[in-house]
Amino acid sequence: MGKVAINIATGSLLQQDIIVGIDLGTTNSLIAIVKTDTHEPIALREIDGLTLVPSIVHFDAFGNVTVGNPARELLVKEPERTIYSAKRLMGKTYTDVGSDSSFFAYNIIDDGTEAMVKVQVGNQFYSPTELSSYILKELKKRAEHILKTTVSKAVITVPAYFNDAQRQATRDAGRLAGLDVLRIINEPTAASLAYGIGLKGHYEKTIAVYDLGGGTFDISILAINNGIFEVLATNGDTYLGGDDMDNLLARYWQEDAGTGNTALGLGSSTDKSLTQQLRITAEAAKKHLTDNEVYEGEINGTPVRITREEFSDLITPLIERTLTACKNALKDASMQPAQIDAVVMVGGSTRVPAVKAAVKAFFGREVHDKLNPDEVVALGAAVQADILAGNNTEMLLLDVTPLSLGIETMGGLMDVLIPRNSKIPTKAGRQYTTQKDGQSGMRISVFQGERDLVSDNRKLAELNLTGIPAMPAGLPKVEVTFLLDADGILKVSATELRSGVAQSIEVKPQYGLSDEEVEKMLLDSLTHAKEDIQLRALVEATTEAQQMLDTTVKFLKKHGEAISEIEATTTEGKMKELTQAMDAKDKNLIQQLTEQLNEISRPFAERIMDSALKDAMRGKSIV
User: Fold this and answer.
1) Mean residue pLDDT across the chain
2) Domains defined along the chain, listed by start
3) pLDDT score for 92
4) Where are the alpha helices (DSSP H) in 220-300?
5) 87 in catalytic set
């Protein structure tokens, strides 16, 4: 691997490397660059002319991975092995996604805990980070094939509402794909940059980014001041998009008097291929009506027809839902539509004429829609990449922190609070809890670096929070806050929120590190990315398994008399198997056996709790 020259003050690269912009989308993903001769951003196209890569990953029975269009073709044939919408799972816990489990045709392990969600395919377990890394690897491979050069640096976009955990998961996915992620930027910010809004440093503007994709809708209100983008408000609907327009049109044809269900053969039919044909025809009609007044076609030999005006009337309720979200975002930002200086359109569904007309009327101004709405976010990411490469001198590049800052968590893992390349000054906070009952103190060790284990990073300081009132494990809430000022001084504070016990310390993160040492730390993080993330996954699985064992032991001790001998023997046998798997350090087997132990213990745990509840209803106390 070659040397990477980095400006410590700004985090920008000193050599003229190619840095790509990536839109890692829920439905489709794509990659873009700024052309060196014209300085124009372009989406990279394969010889088939397509820029979009479906965000779909398929695993065959032997563990081989397929990404994109070939994987999409297996969605119906092998749904349990074909993973879509992994972005919706990024940084989420089992509890977060439980209510949406019916949306996914594949197996999401849901044990009701606060552990990060995993997807099971056969006997293998994958995190959303790993799944996203396969998509990024495919994009990287595409870029290298088209550009005929190695690509190792990227700017990746995320929704404005993504939290720290989701942003860190996206960074990790990039690193696992062999990419040095120089910056994570918000999708609405990227769309603005693609139109040149905010590129000139010396003005103030407030803009709205209206993003209507295939399955989701987002509206973001941004304030731009001297090149700095601030998200004032976001709103939207994660289940509203072009797919809903297609479904409405399909239903319209089914219910139409002239070509009713019977005529289309759909009255009592459960023929999936016919249903799929109806949906595909509806999508084709929607696209046709963008430039034409009438669509005429046929489904299963039955003619179907719709005019643009009829289609516009049909989807009016959907458009109204997007405008309600716009009103809510403006209300949160304490603004009126007239105060918005520019409106940027993003997402393929904004091509629909009725959508454009409604947005223009709502904001009372023309909209920015000249760029391809499917590509605009990736194009903006490429513009940001060009700035980081030092090719765009008109854009102000703020000081950034050159290495990630975080603390040590269970198993010796590095939990990043301020990622590398974050603009400074900056502030970040996260809540933690105790591991043992009655724990009265917590040691907070502060580290700097890019590796997953703290033992591979540089220790900066240690903070001891004492005097935490005795409580059961998991009950105390300790908020750790990092404040990095413009001089590079890091102030770390910890507060137990229930009791108010607090402690703080100041450190200088960059003290004593040369440019060469920073460079080596960055290179090591890429060189060891795969083994680091595998090791972290093993530590997380082992920690989760130990918590499951501890909980089960405590439960058996307390309720042993209410459990049958067969139940006790089966549970103890599974616990022994799990302990052996932990000793063998087999991640997939640990996760498999943890899930099995959970399934074995759930029925009698529920039975005992039901019995206790009935006793309580009779006036008895719950033990």
Assistant:
1) 83
2) 19-195+373-388 (3.30.420.40), 242-312 (3.90.640.10), 405-515 (2.60.34.10), 531-617 (1.20.1270.10)
3) 78
4) 242-255, 261-264, 272-288
5) yes
